[in-house]
Amino acid sequence: MLTRRIIPCLDVRDGQVVKGVRFRDHLVMGEIVDLALRYRD
Q: 17 near 8, Cβ under 8 Å?
């Protein structure tokens, strides 16, 4: 049986993780390393 997997993706712009809607109006969400560690845990 196939297992469903969730693959996290961090959108990065100018060294910061950003959140955008349809590639517009980016908001800075934080540092790359800090957010990557959250996904790992």
A: no
Rounded alpha-carbon distances, angstroms, from residue 21 to 4, 11, 25, 34: 25, 11, 7, 22
Query: Does residue 14 come out as left (phi exceeding 0), alpha (psi in the -120 to 50 range) or beta?
Result: left
pLDDT digit string (tens) for 7-17? 878 889 888 99
Q: What is the pLDDT of residue 28?
A: 93
Phi, psi values for residue 17, rounded to 5°: -80, 130
pTM to 2 decimals? Answer: 0.62
Q: Which two tokens stand for residue 5?
A: 């997997």
